[in-house]
Specification:
This protein has 303 residues and is mainly α. Helices cover 75% and strands 1% of the residues. It folds into two domains: 2-142 and 156-174, no CATH class; 182-293, no CATH class. A two-stranded antiparallel sheet has the order 1-2.
Length: 303
């Protein structure tokens, strides 16, 4: 009887222990209790960490390349903290992105203005500017609903972009060196003058010199065209008779006169006009002494 009672007691204790073990496993392993200290650690460590990183971020003390690397690292860190729920306040993440973006972009803007203030410009710098403008415009907060940069900073980026575009357009204007007509020369020179005196562009020596030289190049182009026109007078066999030659010579005289008197090029045309006039005088004397076919026939007939 005693053995039966002892066995019952042992079986009861074993069963209680087994049930207790299962309950312990479910309570503390399968469904562990919320660790209040862990949440406190996230609040007291990760949020201040991001805030301190942003506060200590000083891009002005770095080169532009170093500043961009530091900025990217800061944004990546804040993004990881946010995605892993280590930053529990969404506003802290948005503030971190907005503040660091503003700091870096203002540094980049100052760098750009410094480049524009130099007398020698590098298109490689412009490529960097265009890339960063595109990059920083895309940064957003409030789950993509709002730009991270302030309206004033975005406006400054637009200004830099405009300078780059105007620089390209201005160089395009400098290639308009072929003379077409005097009115077109005036239009081109006015456009060139506008770019040459524009803010920032006026600092670029090579560009300004090229823009200011358009008038002279247009004058040379006009002179070369007139030279070829006058030169045709020497080929008397092009003309049927003296009258045809005289009509063409008279027309060319008017072209030379117009060229000499114009001031659209911004430089004197007197020297080139004299060369053209001297050429024409020589060809006219040759034509005067030339025996034209129709005159020879008439002379023979009269004899």
């Amino acid at each position: 009887m005693k053995n039966a009672v002892s066995k019952s007691i042992i079986l009861a204790v074993a069963l209680a222990a087994a049930i207790g073990g299962v309950l312990f496993f479910i309570r503390y392993v399968v469904n562990p209790p919320e660790d209040i200290s862990a949440i406190a650690t996230a609040e007291s460590v990760f949020n201040p960490n991001i805030k301190n990183n942003v506060a200590s971020f000083n891009p002005d003390s770095l080169s532009l390349m170093e500043a961009e690397v530091s900025y990217d690292a800061l944004v990546d860190r804040a993004t990881i903290f946010s995605e892993d729920k280590l930053i529990t306040d969404k506003q802290i993440y948005d503030n971190a992105i907005a503040e660091s973006s503003e700091k870096f972009t203002k540094c980049f803007i100052r760098w750009s203005i410094e480049k524009f203030s130099k007398s020698t410009w590098n298109t490689g710098d412009h490529s960097v500017m265009s890339r960063l403008i595109s990059k920083m415009r895309k940064v957003s907060i409030d789950e993509g609903a709002k730009k991270a940069l302030s309206p004033q900073t975005l406006s400054s980026l637009t200004e830099i972009e405009s300078v780059i575009n105007d620089y390209k357009k201005a160089w395009s204007v400098t290639r308009n060196t072929r003379f077409t007509d005097y009115q077109n020369v005036t239009s081109i020179r006015n456009e060139a003058r506008t770019y040459a005196t524009r803010k920032y562009l006026s600092n670029c020596t090579d560009l300004v010199n090229a823009l200011n030289a358009i008038g002279e190049k247009q004058e040379n182009s006009c002179y070369n065209q007139l030279y070829k026109t006058v030169e045709r007078l020497q080929y008397l066999y092009y003309f049927e008779n003296r009258k045809a030659y005289e009509n063409e010579s008279k027309r060319i005289f008017g072209l030379i006169k117009e060229f000499k008197e114009t001031n659209v090029f911004g430089i004197s045309t007197a020297n080139h006009a004299k060369i053209l006039a001297d050429m024409q005088d020589q060809y006219d004397r040759n034509a005067e002494n030339h025996e034209w076919p129709d005159e020879t026939i008439e002379s023979n007939y009269n004899q």
